[in-house]
Every structure is written in C-alpha cells, then in structure tokens.
C-alpha cells in the first residue's frame, strides 16, 4: 500500500471511529429518558462525551498553549488565566485573542515549560494577536484546507488536557458580524460643555475602572479632551473590549484610570440579553468580524484564542468569541492562514509599549488611532 493511501486510510479510520462513538453516545442518551435525569457526565459536554473526542484533539492539543498574565508582587506570584493560544510556526509564534491580553504575558506549553511572551502583531479587525516566545522546534498546528466546515459538522476545542474543552456542531455558515460602537458606561451632566460625569452605570467599564459622579474627563488615551463631544469622538475610534487610559480630575486631584470599553447591549442589558448570558460570561469583544463560523460549543471567554478542529483533527478555525448562551464564533481557517505572514513579519506590529515580556515595565495602552477625530 502506498504511503499516501495509508495516511488517507488512517484518517478515514479515525473519522469513522469517532463518528461511530458519537452515534452510540447519542443513541444511548436518547434511550435513557429525559435529559434532566441523566448523569451529568453523559450530557454532550459531560466527561464521557468529551472523552470520546480525545483522539480527535490529540494532535492539535500538542500545539495548544495557555496564555497567562504573570502578576508579580513582593510576597507571591499570582497568575491570571487569559486565553488559549496555538503554535502556528515552529519557530515560536503563537496566535491568540488580542482583547483578552493584558499585563505581563507568559505561555504555558504542553511539555510544562513556562515562557515569557511578547506581542509582535495585532490584527484589530479580527481581534488576533501574534505572540513570540523563545522556543524552536515546536509542533505547529495543521490547518484544514478547502471549503469551510459544513453546518451540522462535529467540532471539538482542544485545551491543555487530554479531553477537549468542549464539543459542538457548526450551527450557521460563514457570515459577517456587524461592528457595535464602544461605550464607557457613563452619563454626562447636561449643563455646559465640560465632560463632567453625572452617572456611572453599574457593572460597566467605567464602574470597573473606578470612575465616579462629578469626575471630569480631561484626556482619553493620551488625547486631551475639553468637551463631551471630544470624549465621544475619541471613544468612537475604539471597539468593545479595547482597554485605554483615562485622565480625570476629581476635586483638586488628577487621577489616571484604565477602563475596558463595553458594547451597548452588555452595558445596558434588557431581559433578553440577561437570558442569553445564563450560561456564563460572554467575551468582551464579540462583534465586528468580517467572516465567522457560528457554532454551539459552550466556551468560557478564557477558552477563546485557540483552535477548533473537525473530526479529522485539523483546525477549521480560531475560536474568537463567546457571543451567547449557545453561540460561539470561530474565524475560518482560510482567513486565519491569510493573515499569518503579516502578523509575524512586523507589518502589524503594535506600539513598542505593548510588545512586552516578563522583564518589561507595565505597558501603556495603545496610542489613539489616527482617525479618532473623524
């Protein structure tokens, strides 16, 4: 038998084995009564079902990393889990979700190594960041070729363990997700033109940053603002999920605060929005993508940034957002592959202050884009 034929036979055998296992599980679940009476392990994202997909994610898992913010203090080291990432080049290039990154970055590899990382490229339209770590001969992920995965196709998200993080199916074919405007979560005092805050909305970016009523905003991301309209123009250059510095005057003091912008739906939720969040927190940046595949895999925001694979084990895309209770988005593999060279080459390099390692000082946020006044 030729080598090519053996490889093809192996892939077909593995796919057939997984399909048979999945079919048996589905039949078993159907035969055992109501879903609410089932052992949790036997539900679709229970341990028994995820174990059936262990072989599917085996190869892609070797290319999967965890990205952490390494918080250093005098007394201890406290690491914050930010996102998944994936090795896209054996020379130490790791792709992940940009808007989840902050602080001092470190990648945890499958072999247990913990390596400092710096950002070498950011694609804002797709919320992707390319990290560089000091390592070589890493196992790079294998991408699916050809058409997008079909609606109804089984998918699995590899993580750091043998079993996938979650499994699901493609629910909507490739489509565009419109961009939403970014909001801070404040209301200005109507009298006069000064950007004086009347109200800070609970659980908004402004609330999390520590803004208070009667604060006056004097600068947004380093740009001086003197009017309410100037603040709005400055914020219009950013997207939900972006983090920026705000200079405010409180009484006779000036304070520098860092805020993460939200979207109108999350910042001012209605009943339908709250119901859509019942499965857990959604990604801060989940809109404004030119092309995504929608799937029903249940992911935590910190489980985005890595790949999602089909039954042949090849990556069909990058998980980029959890957008609803049973709604997650993946950037198709063909789109991701087309961006890799620019992300690695320095063409999309971030400001120097953002390209950080564990030896750098805490970085300043990205400078305000040139179109901020438009």
Q: What does this molecule look like?
A:
- The chain is of the alpha+beta class and 374 residues long.
- Among the domains are: 3-54; 186-262, PDZ domain (Pdz3 Domain), CATH 2.30.42.10.
- It is built from eight helices and 18 strands.
- The strands form four sheets. A six-stranded antiparallel beta barrel has the order 1-2-3-6-5-4. A six-stranded antiparallel sheet has the order 7-8-15-18-17-16.
- Strand 5 and strand 6 form a beta hairpin.
- The model is unreliable at 356-374 (pLDDT under 50).
CATH class of the domain at 186-262: Mainly Beta
- Strand and helix order: HHHEEEEEEEEEEHEEHEEHHEEEEH
Number of helical segments with 4 or more residues: 8
Which structural class should the secondary elements be placed in? Answer: alpha+beta
Q: Kindly report how far apart the N and C termini lie.
A: 64 Å
Q: Output the strand order for the largest sheet.
A: 1-2-3-6-5-4
Q: Which stretches of 5+ consecutive residues score pLDDT under 50? A: 356-374
Mean pLDDT: 84
CATH topology of the domain at 186-262: Pdz3 Domain
Described by strand count, sense and barrel closure, the largest sheet is: 6 strands, antiparallel, barrel
Number of strands: 18
């Amino acid at each position: 038998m030729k080598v090519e034929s053996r490889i093809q036979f192996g892939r077909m055998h593995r796919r057939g084995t997984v399909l048979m296992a999945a079919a048996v599980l589905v039949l078993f679940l159907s035969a055992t009564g109501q879903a609410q009476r089932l052992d949790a392990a036997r539900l679709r994202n229970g341990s028994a079902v995820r174990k059936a997909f262990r072989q599917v994610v085996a190869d892609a898992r070797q290319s999967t990393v965890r990205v952490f913010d390494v918080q250093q203090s005098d007394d201890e080291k406290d690491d914050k889990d930010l996102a998944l990432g994936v090795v896209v080049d054996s020379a130490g290039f790791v792709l992940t979700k940009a808007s989840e990154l902050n602080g001092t970055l470190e990648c945890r590899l499958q072999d247990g190594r913990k390596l400092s990382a710096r950002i070498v490229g950011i694609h804002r339209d797709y919320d992707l960041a390319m990290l560089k770590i000091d390592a070589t001969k890493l196992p790079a992920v294998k991408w699916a070729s050809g058409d997008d995965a079909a609606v109804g196709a089984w998918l699995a998200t590899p993580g750091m363990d043998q079993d996938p993080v979650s499994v699901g199916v493609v629910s909507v074919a490739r489509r565009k997700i419109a961009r939403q405007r970014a909001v801070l979560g404040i209301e200005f005092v109507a009298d006069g033109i000064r950007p004086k805050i009347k109200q800070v909305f609970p659980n908004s970016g402004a609330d999390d940053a520590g803004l208070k009523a009667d604060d006056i905003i004097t600068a947004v991301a380093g740009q001086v603002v003197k009017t309410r309209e100037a603040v709005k123009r400055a914020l219009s250059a950013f997207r939900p999920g972006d983090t920026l510095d705000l200079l405010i005057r409180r009484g006779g003091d000036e304070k520098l605060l860092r805020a993460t912008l939200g979207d109108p739906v999350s910042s001012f939720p209605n009943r339908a929005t709250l119901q859509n969040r019942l499965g857990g927190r959604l990604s801060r940046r989940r809109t404004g993508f030119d092309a995504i595949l929608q799937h029903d895999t249940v992911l935590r925001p910190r489980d985005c940034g890595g790949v999602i694979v089909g039954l042949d084990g090849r990556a069909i895309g990058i998980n980029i957002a959890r957008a609803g209770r049973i709604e997650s988005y993946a950037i198709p593999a063909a789109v991701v592959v087309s961006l890799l060279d620019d992300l690695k080459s320095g063409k999309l390099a971030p400001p120097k202050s953002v390209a950080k390692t564990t030896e750098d000082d805490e970085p300043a946020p990205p400078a305000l884009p040139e179109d901020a006044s438009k």
